Amino acid sequence: MSEEGAKIAVIGLGNAGLPLAAVVADSGIMVMGVDINEERCRLINRGGNPIPEEAGLEELIKRHGGKRLVATPHFEDARGCSTYIVIVPVFVDGGNNPDFSILEKALYSLGKILKKGDLVVLETTFPPGTTEGMVQSRLCESSGLRESDFFLAYSPERIMTGYSLSRLREFPKVIGGRDEESGIVAYQVYKKFISNLHLVSSAKVAEMIKVMEGCYRDVNIALANELFKICQDMGIDFFEAREKANHQFCHIHLPSTGVGGHCIPVYPWFLIKEMEKREHFSNRRLLRTSRDVNDEMIRYWAERILLECMKINKPLSSIKICIKGITFRAGVKEFYHSRNLALARLLMEKGLDAYVYDPLLSELDVQKKGLRYIEPDKADLLFDPFELKFQISKNKRTT
Amino acid sequence: MSEEGAKIAVIGLGNAGLPLAAVVADSGIMVMGVDINEERCRLINRGGNPIPEEAGLEELIKRHGGKRLVATPHFEDARGCSTYIVIVPVFVDGGNNPDFSILEKALYSLGKILKKGDLVVLETTFPPGTTEGMVQSRLCESSGLRESDFFLAYSPERIMTGYSLSRLREFPKVIGGRDEESGIVAYQVYKKFISNLHLVSSAKVAEMIKVMEGCYRDVNIALANELFKICQDMGIDFFEAREKANHQFCHIHLPSTGVGGHCIPVYPWFLIKEMEKREHFSNRRLLRTSRDVNDEMIRYWAERILLECMKINKPLSSIKICIKGITFRAGVKEFYHSRNLALARLLMEKGLDAYVYDPLLSELDVQKKGLRYIEPDKADLLFDPFELKFQISKNKRTT
């Protein structure tokens, strides 16, 4: 690929990076996608789509894969680009601190090919201050460039698996620079492929925007879970009350088994840990409580399952309990921080005869997770964690 | 007034009851309004409006006061009615438990005139279960009737001082019966003057709907306050971030000095105390934390005021600090649980030279509250609790 052809490199072709790379390519810009997964790169270059649940992506990759969108496992191949978009995951570790290891590796490799005048835009969600802090330091260290030698900005991805293309095309997207010039340069580049684009005053503000959204979701799901438990306790139909309580000024969310996935249960920790590091504990009380309320929902559901078991005419230990779905979200084969998986494990730890069934998983898939597979009709009690519904199999009920 | 003339009695002509009574009268129904405040009754009967800040109310009372809407301090005068709407306040006491004393007094008096076949509808916001529990018991005790002798329902007021008429006319209003027949009878009566009316399955659900709305507001204001403190701590403009974070799925509220008034800071306690009574402490963690976060905001603002004082070229104790507004909400002359009033008192307790100014209050009004009045231009430092803005008077700044 010639230097003037490939203009934009997308570092990370995961669930967030690949839809973005496809949208950039579809806008007419040559894209070099970099991902350590060689098999994924080969598939993309053949026009194949590794994320089938992403609406519209298949068509874009078929059209551009190996042509306007070239995937490679080698950073070296992206040397000719002038814009580098970094969109690799940042998780939290066992202590809920951000784990930058994947990002730091990517920044080190990027630094090796970074030139004076290039633009680097981060899309990964991480704690506010990371772009102007850690990211800039690593890039300078690895490239030997000074801060002022390259433009640096931040624009948070707002994808949601299944809806990522429409989000990129319609949803407002914000971008903010490490400094004013970086912001303007990044805005001009992004404007070529993002129509609903908004320049904000700094990278830090753009980082906070994304984290705040996650916090809003987490706290409001915790509120829904708490109100659901209270309604249950008081003999009130939560769903009926919620439907009528909600209006243009009231947005009570849905209850659940907790919050899983890479986003909502992770982002609040970015702020919680920052406040704890500063010993400003009173500044993170609500966020921390919400995390706890959501994570502890699996204990609530385990108790509810036990109460259902009491209705079945068998000793507790021999009631076959089936958790019908262990992905973190219905219809998406992902398990990161899945509370449904955690619920199945909790039941097993308590010595119950617990099994799982998931329409997205084979018996072998289930066994690989250390769980036991069952066909739903063989279980005495089914619990659907997405519908929050119990089902006792026929002729098993005591009364 | 003849018996067939007065059909509906509204018990309580306060900020919630009077707009309702006026709307009922305006729909063509004869209304007998009962309120212990004799002066207020006389004013209404002369066609005068005691709530000037309520848009459109003046016109309605001018038209119907003393004619289709007759106010009286005597329950006896409402004896001829067949529907009784009770809309008197329930507050919380010093221990945050509901204080039913005003309501119980009203129910006792109502029982004395209640007849077989009458309908009683409660509009007061109180803990779910109160209608079918305490309210029914008191009415039976006082009237000597059996439960099945009268219809009983609940329909929460959704007023907001200043917008109450438009809320009654446009906003969805729910109603639920103690039993199915009560619900249907009450729905038919209310339908005559409320167009956007929805029947729900029980009085308890209707009670919970109102309380849930308040909890949603309180938790989301606590979230806004917490995110505001975090942004301040991290050097990020909260308002810029909020504006861009909010979209159709994200509704981050505005920060404040806390939450005052009769509604939002009160309703969460109805659920918190009920869960504490049942010793289900884990079911009220988020609601409780939110209450604390909001109530403690005055400490945060006191600290911010001190930091502003450090910029002024005077000893701390001689800096004249003015809190510009002590009502609980801008433009409404009410003080119930006002955090701005509490902030002014906190500063005085700390021995600071604190004063207040409020465009709605005279010097004497201020002094009656045990506070000291100042003209804003005489103060060294102004804090506007509604705008959350500081202003240091000219020539007082150190640097």
What can be said about this structure in brief?
Two copies of one chain form a homodimer. With 399 residues, chain A is an alpha/beta fold.
Structure description:
Two copies of one chain form a homodimer. The first copy, chain A, is α/β, with parallel strands linked by helices and 399 residues long. The first copy, chain A, has three domains: 6-201, Rossmann fold (3-Layer(aba) Sandwich); 210-295, Orthogonal Bundle (N-(1-d-carboxylethyl)-l-norvaline Dehydrogenase, domain 2); 297-392, NAD(P)-binding Rossmann-like Domain (Rossmann fold, 3-Layer(aba) Sandwich), CATH 3.40.50.720. Chain A is built from 14 helices and 14 strands. Chain A has helices spanning 17-26, 38-45, 57-64, 101-113, 131-143, 164-170, 180-190, 203-234, 238-245, 267-277, 285-295, 297-309, 339-349, 363-368, and strands at 6-11, 30-34, 69-72, 83-86, 91-92, 98-99, 119-122, 151-154, 173-177, 197-200, 321-324, 354-357, 381-384, 389-392. In chain A, the strands form three sheets. An eight-stranded mixed sheet of chain A has the order 3-2-1-4-7-8-9-10, with helices on both faces. In chain A, a hairpin with a 5-residue loop joins strand 5 (91-92) and strand 6 (98-99). In chain A, helix 1 (17-26) packs across helix 3 (57-64), helix 4 crosses helix 5 and helix 10 crosses helix 11. Chains A and B meet through helix 8, helix 9, helix 10 and helix 11 of A and helix 8, helix 9, helix 10 and helix 11 of B.
